[in-house]
Amino acid sequence: MMSIIPTIRAYKGKSFIDFPNDYVIIAIETTGFNPKNNEIIEIGAVKVSNNEIISIFQSLIRPMNPINDYISNQTGITNQMVTDASQISEVLDSFLSFADKHILIGHNINFDINFLYDHCEEQLGQYFTNDFIEIVDLFREKTIPLQNQNPLALCEKCVIRNTNTHRALSDCLATNDLFQYLKSQQKPFRCIGKLDFLNFRSELGANHPLYKMKCLLPKIGGDRTIH
What we know:
Blueprint: E1 15-16, E2 23-30, E3 40-49, E4 52-60, H1 69-75, H2 88-99, E5 104-106, H3 109-124, E6 132-134, H4 135-141, H5 151-157, H6 168-184, E7 190-191, H7 201-204, H8 209-212, E8 215-216
Parallel strand pairs: 1-6, 2-5, 5-6
Antiparallel strand pairs: 2-3, 3-4, 7-8
């Protein structure tokens, strides 16, 4: 029986649970799930300083191999869209300058980090060493129960809109909203009801009874609605 040799990424950054004021949100789109065999086709990033977005980064990447229909259907990125896109080495070089040494935040970020690490090593001959934070771990840190960890479900749980899922920059902006929402919660909270039938505050209004059922702090001197 053939054994699988694990990939060693000796200089990979460390995973933390923290709520920094300065950070970079990242998201990538790829042609598959294996960093050794598949390619990055989009990188998005949002730089935040003192909790305010100060800069964004977004670039499509022209892969060596055609994008298959499954990936195009998932991401909306077609072969035609990347025909004139930059090569991976150019985009990675620009992205590394953008991210610098900032701590990175993302959803399923270990996946993104592994792709970036392997491609930086292969394409640029350098290691990708940024430390990183997984947004799902922050939900657990705030003792928020999760039945579904996919990005859309997390956004629905916190009544955050992501209008273009599976596109890197849109996912970054939604993840930043999630992070700031979690950061603002000073106490653990519980969610009531199914948010998949709940419209957003802007559509219902803060006084709508369904909106008021969204999230309540634990009973300490009475329930309080979180806005």
